[in-house]
Amino acid sequence: MLDPYDFSGRTDPQIARMVLSDAGFSELDIEAGLENLWREYIAELRTRADEGHVRTLPGVRDLLDALSGSSWATLGLLTGNIEPGARLKLAPPELNRFFHFGAFGSDSLHREELPPIAADRAFLLEKHRYDGEDIVVIGDSIYDVRCAKPHRAITVAVASGRTPLSLLRPEKPDFLFESLEDFHGVIEAIVQSPAVERRIDPRRVPQDPDLVND
After folding, report:
1. Is residue 104 a contact partner of residue 114, using CB atoms and an 8 Å limit?
2. Do the beta carbons of residue 92 and residue 55 sit within 8 Å?
3. pLDDT class for 195, splitting at 50, 70, 90?
4. Which tens digits make up the pLDDT trace of 50-87?
5. What confidence score (pLDDT) does residue 110 get?
6. Contacts of residue 153, Cβ cutoff 8 Å, sequence gap at least 6
7. Measuring CA to CA, which residue among 38, 93, 44, 43 is closest to residue 64?
8. Got the DSSP string for 92-135?
9. 3-class SS at 11?
10. Which of 48, 102, 109, 168 could cross-link to 77 by cystine, CB 3.0-4.6 Å?
11. Cα(97)–Cα(79) distance, rounded to whole angstroms?
């Protein structure tokens, strides 16, 4: 039974080790079996990751559309999922097109090691070195906040997942929202990053799509 576990924000390798260790497997046995585990996991995920099981949370697409169309933001995907699994999950709602690079659970067991990996990959694409407040981490778990803080990244926590506001607030993220439907608030949080302020033309700040459509 997996009900007692809270997997929110953990990397896939962490989850595998946690569950298998509790089931009595040794570290050596776990390590030896991970390649087969991921193969079976991806095969099963292919049968489940479809439009009936994967949904886009409110506000996500509007935010991605706005940021991807800006001249001052570079989108990267930072997730505890191994990369093949992450890409499969993003395929049904067609969100992969927003993320040309990222850092994944397949890159490191430890989530706090992922932001520098993502920054290095951004540098390879853009020849711009992102560091500290250049980086804004948006996530819905305490581990999203914790992985960003050692690197001085701006943290935007969103209570759209399984972690409620009451648990996100004690982590002291720089900004905290109930959902990404607060388009204006989230954009303002990102724009207030000192690094973004240096790069942005205020006249080109994305506007609330509802206001634009009106």
Report:
1. yes
2. no
3. low
4. 988 999 999 999 999 999 999 889 999 999 999 999 99
5. 96
6. 115, 132, 133, 135, 136, 137
7. 93
8. TTT-GGG-S-EE-TTT-SSGGGHHHHHHHHHHHHHS----GGG-
9. coil
10. 102
11. 16
Average model confidence (pLDDT) across the chain: 90
Q: Which amino acid is at 76?
A: G
Per-residue pLDDT tens digits for 74-128: 999 999 999 999 999 999 999 999 999 999 999 999 999 999 999 999 999 988 8
According to the CATH classification, is domain 60-213 in 3.30.70.1060?
Answer: no
- The ranges assigned to domains in the chain are 60-213
Q: Would you mind telling me the total number of residues written for the chain in this entry?
A: 214
CA 1 to CA 60: how far, in whole Å? Answer: 32
Residue 113: HSE in the Cβ half-sphere, 13 Å Cα cutoff: 8
